Structure formats: structure tokens, C-alpha cells
Amino acid sequence: MVAGARVIEVPRTAGVPSAPVIIGLHGLGGSAENFAQVWSGFTPAAEIDVIEGFEVAGDGHAWFSWPPGTSDEELVTAIDAAERKLWPVIAELAHGRRAIIVGYSQGAMLTFALAARHPEAIAGAVAIAGRLPPALWPQRAGAPIDAIHGTADRVIDIEAGRAVIEAFRAVGGPAEMHEFSGVGHTLTGPMRDVLYARVAARL
Fold it and tell me: Is the domain covering 7-202 a CATH 3.30.470.20 domain?
């Protein structure tokens, strides 16, 4: 346990002590173990820590409650509370190093929020199939961020992801959108290749 959260360190060769630590955030109903598998083909030496969501959701975990019919105002409150609880965990894992945040779905929503709020402490972020309500968009240049999203996503529409990237660009932050035609709410092999490339570039 780290700052009250369950964390799994992905077994691998540790990177340079001063290099950024990679932080993984799973999606709704996921687990730290499952999201750790995302890194099975990542070859650069690095410390990778996967944090488990704070709430039980079915057989897995979630970062916050998001029932059908949740308003954007309610979603803002939920994301804000989860981010404030999550950041001390990341700070303790980083031990003064910068972090690279990678999140999927609900984890991507938090990734966007973290990149907006902690640009000085985050070396880069990758949000996979995520969105962020406008009330949480960055007010100043955020951390460098990449969004990976399928054009056929029926859970979180790609237009919502595009809007967040434009919001990061509008305040001067480096932000790139990587779109995958016909792909739904998932992480495919080609998407993973982009993820690996973007994370390796930030190390």
C-alpha cells in the first residue's frame, strides 16, 4: 500500500534513478494486475507502477462512481475528488522524480485532469479513450499529452477526446491526438504501439 492505495510494480529492469516513473491507471471495472499486462511488450528500462482504483466495481475497481445519467457537474465533483486522493499516491511513488501518466477510460479522464493540474511534475501523459468535462480543462499550459482514441468508440465519443486536446492546445500545451479508424472502446495492438512510442519518447 502506498498512501492508502494498492500499487503493483511491473517486474522489469529499473530505469535510471533520475528518470521519470511511469504510472498506470486502469479503467472502470479493471484491476492493477490487468493493466500491468499492457506493459508486457514495453522494452525500455523504466520503473512502472500501476495503481488500483479506490472503489470496488463488480469484479474490479473504479476511480469514482459514474452511474448512467450522471451530469457533467456531478462528474466534475467525482473526478476532482478522485484526483485529489490520487495525487499524493503518485507523489510518493515518484520520490521527487517527474512522472509519466498513462490511463485508460476512467483512468484517462484522471490522466487529463492530472496533466492539467500538475504540469511541472509530469513529464508526459497518455490518455486512452478518455474525456474531461470543460470545467476541468487546463487554465495554463499543461503537461505534454497524447490522446489515443478509436473513431467508433461508443462509450466515450471521440469528439469529447478531441475537445480536450484542443483545450490543452488553446493554452499553449503540447497536445496530440492519435485516431484509429473503426476502433471502439478498447486498446488494440496498433494503439499500444503508439502508446509505447510516446512513453519512450518522454523517458
Answer: no
Distance CA 23, CA 8 (A): 10
Sign of CA dihedral 171, 74, 52, 39: negative
Decide if 79 contacts 65 (C-beta within 8 A). Answer: no
- The structure's pTM equals 0.96
Q: Whats the size of the chain, residue-wise?
A: 203
Q: What would the pLDDT profile of 171-199 be if each residue is shown by its tens digit?
A: 999 999 999 999 999 999 999 999 999 99
List strand residue ranges (DSSP E) for the chain, in order.
7-9, 21-25, 48-51, 55-57, 60-62, 99-104, 122-128, 145-150, 175-180
- Which amino acid does the sequence have at 134? P
The answer to whether residues 98 and 20 touch, using CB atoms and an 8 Å cutoff, is yes
CA gap 172, 158 in Å, rounded: 22
CB 63 within 8 A of CB 54: yes
Element (H, E) at 16: none
Q: What is the rounded distance in angstroms from the CA atom of residue 25 to the CA atom of residue 111?
A: 8
The secondary structure element, H or E, covering residue 82 is: helix 72-94
Domain locations along the chain: 7-202
User: Following DSSP, what letter does each residue of 89-141 receive, concatenated?
Assistant: HHHHHHTTS-EEEEEETHHHHHHHHHHHH-TTTEEEEEEES----GGGS-SS-
Measured from the Cβ of residue 188, the count of other Cβ atoms closer than 10 Å reads 13
Write down the pLDDT at residue 18: 79
